[in-house]
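Why does residue order matter? Because the sequence determines the fold. Keep that principle in mind as you read this record.
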Amino acid sequence: KKIDLKGKAVASLNSNSKRASLFAAKKERIRLPTYSDDFGGKKYHISEFLSHPSGIAAVLNTKALESFQSLDANTYRCELPKLQFLNFEAAPLLDLRVTSTDEDCLVEMLSCKV
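Structure:
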């Protein structure tokens, strides 16, 4: 696992402006299981789970988001709840791409606006 968190806030003495630069990144890779039906026949891969809207909703944890919308077949816009940091309030808006294969799933952040 790798987690990087950085933050910097600047308040100008000559004006009422405030500026913040925030950065957070997490990279983690886990092996996903393959499931068989109850009769030991057909195998189900993560790609089949993610082909359904409920699978994407589970991976992106949409219940924790303020809003969630599909932009295209594998790109999603997620609005996070407002957060406060050093007297700043921000509502991050993320564009994420979800790419899956039979072996793994990649969630990639395409953009982040605050």
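The mean pLDDT is 75.
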